[in-house]
Amino acid sequence: MVKVIQFDDDSEQHIHQKIVSNFPILRELGWICVKPDYRNTLHPYKVDAIKNGKLIQSAATTRNNLYIAPIRRNVPIKDEQSDSSESDNDKIPITKPNKSNRTIKNEVIVISDDDEDNVTGQNFNYSYITHRTTNDNLRSTNSNFDNSWLHSSSSSSQNVNQENSFSVNEFRVNILNKLHSNYGIPEGSSVRINIRSRSYICDDILNWINSAQVIDLIKNPIINITDEVVTDTGGGFRDLTEALWNDIRTKPFNGGGLFEDNVYLLRSSIEIDEWGYALLVGKLLLWSWMHNGAWPRWFHRCQLKYIIDGKNSFSCESILSEYLPSLYKLICDIRENNYNEAELIDWINLRNLDIDDILAINQETLSEFIADYEIIQRRVNSLRKLKEGFNFTRNIIDFKIYGWIKIEKDLYKSLSHKDFFDQFNETLNNHTINRNIRWSSFRRRIYDWFKQYIRKQSKSKLEKILSFIAGTSRIPLTNKITVISMYF
């Protein structure tokens, strides 16, 4: 496949966009530079480095050949040697600028594992593209490729049964471990995300997630807030993602808010669809879940059910009853053949539907149609993009096999008083209370007063108190709560 790309600047975002726009499959599978050694064996080159112009220049060989490979295995790269529809004039050279603005041409070689059964560990087939002259033809050849950094994940009924026995948190960790293995991510690898200030959490993380590849989503996030001294290395991740989701819930975007106010179903409009916000929300949900961040419990759960288990996994009519009670009453009246046709026509006109087509539907089907239209069809473009984002790592099938309902139960669990107190480190807290015998009884009395106060609070207030203490209401907390004694 011959692709000629001209890099207009050295930025990471620009280079990545140029690569994936010409090799779309790499948008989902990720890519790295690989470089041959003196034996012509290819090795991953600076996997954790920023993919900017400096890396591209250093990754190129002395002959200006640039090798790139998909991060995941078993990716067929189409060899278009026989494709005569692409003329030499259609071939856009991959170039990189330098300080003198002189165009430097590179051969860009795309490595792929064409047949898993034929891979011996050293022999890899690849197709590469060249443009030293306008008459160059595509060639295919063999090269040595050290693919020990790549790992394939096998699935079997035994593995499925084992995963189904996992707790939700064990399943989450297992998903991350598999992704790390599949993408050759070393243990402890991290990605740094820079945020200008807390007031820019939403804007800066959305900008980051927009260009993030799979490899970025699965690395441990390190958040650097520029105007603060502290860099978060994990402890405050839930606090930050809690603030992120609160901003997204109410923030006006191009095309207005992203959600229906009363039930927080995704909206769909020309502008919202064009900007691809739902895809970003899907990626954020996946990223936040994988790294045990905050989960937006206000986000209507039917939307994840729809993209994972399909629309038959929930009742559109039940959701409509909470979303639009008056319309729900209308579909109940339609089913009982006791409805006001004027109300139905008002709804048809409101949604710009064809009156004759709608009135031709039989009454039983009509009530189902109205509920399905309001809950799914009106926002189907956003739901598709949401699925694309949440399935960015190609793991939706894993959620389906494990059972999304178990994960949902964990994410939307109502906080009880027992759950609240389970987030406290009682062993360490008792040690703190009893550390000084002179003050232990006084400390115990204060701690007991606090517990008595908590037991009187409603579940909704418990969540607010836990969010105040820990920065999030999602349980279990990453670190249990401890009490300290400052003066006695």
From TrEMBL:
Instruction: Give one GO molecular function term.
Output: ubiquitin-protein transferase activity
Checking InterPro entries in the record gives:
Hect_E3_ubiquitin_ligase
Organism per entry: Glomus cerebriforme
UniProt region (Disordered), positions on chain:
77-99
Quote the protein name from its UniProt record.
HECT domain-containing protein
Q: Which domain of life is it from?
A: Eukaryota
The top of its lineage is: Eukaryota, Fungi, Fungi incertae sedis, Mucoromycota, Glomeromycotina
